[in-house]
């Protein structure tokens, strides 16, 4: 039940000074940040990460957007992290995202939707390995973990 998932705070989140506000959402929910760094995504890495989208008409714009400016890459850990993080993030088209989700509160766009999150457990394993070396991931105990893993869940 304890899982890890990958997040990328996209260039629009950095430009708009939203890094702290976004990271707080995951901390407030009880997730533990186990990896965090600023990186520059190359065109090659973009093509690998968005391999399911390279043939789409919007891919050129997506690649330019994701590679021109730095992003913040982050791994969070917690109960059912992959699914719960996707719920906190909201749907791809932020115009349809509910208030209370990150995309619902911070974006009104499909392409500039401030954040990426892995979409399945299998994808999360691949994406964490794509962006983080094992030595860049850290294990420590949150004092609140006691509340997060109740014995009846
Ligand atoms: P996700 O980010 O919610 O997982 P994906 O379908 O994996 O959504 O798409 C990856 C990213 O590609 C989106 O977050 C968005 O930035 C961009 N994107 C997806 N669909 C469209 C579109 O129809 N128009 C423009 N950009 C899109
Ligand atoms: Mg996706």
What is the name of the CATH architecture?
Answer: 2-Layer Sandwich
Spatial arrangement of strands, main beta sheet: 2-3-1-4
Shape: globular
Point out poorly predicted stretches: none
Bound molecules: inosine-5'-diphosphate, magnesium ion
Amino- and carboxy-terminal Cα gap: 9 Å
**Helix- and strand-based class?**
alpha+beta
Helix tally?
A: 8
CATH domain class name: Alpha Beta
The CATH topology corresponds to Alpha-Beta Plaits
Give the number of domains: 1
CATH superfamily: Nucleoside diphosphate kinase-like domain
Note down, in words, how this protein is organized.
By secondary structure, the protein is of the alpha+beta class. The protein has one domain: Alpha-Beta Plaits, CATH 3.30.70.141. 41% of the residues lie in helices and 18% in strands. It is built from eight helices and four strands, in the order βααβααβααβαα. The chain has a four-stranded antiparallel sheet. The radius of gyration is 15 Å and the shape is globular. It starts with a strand and ends in a 5-residue tail after the last helix. The model has no long low-confidence stretch (mean pLDDT 96). It binds inosine-5'-diphosphate and magnesium ion. Inosine-5'-diphosphate (IDP) binds next to loops.
Briefly, what is this?
The protein is α+β, with helices and mostly antiparallel strands and 153 residues long.
How would the blueprint of this fold be written?
Layout: E1 2-9, H1 11-15, H2 19-29, E2 32-39, H3 43-49, H4 59-68, E3 71-79, H5 81-89, H6 102-106, E4 115-117, H7 121-131, H8 145-148
Antiparallel strand pairs: 1-3, 1-4, 2-3
The structure holds inosine-5'-diphosphate (IDP) and magnesium ion (MG).
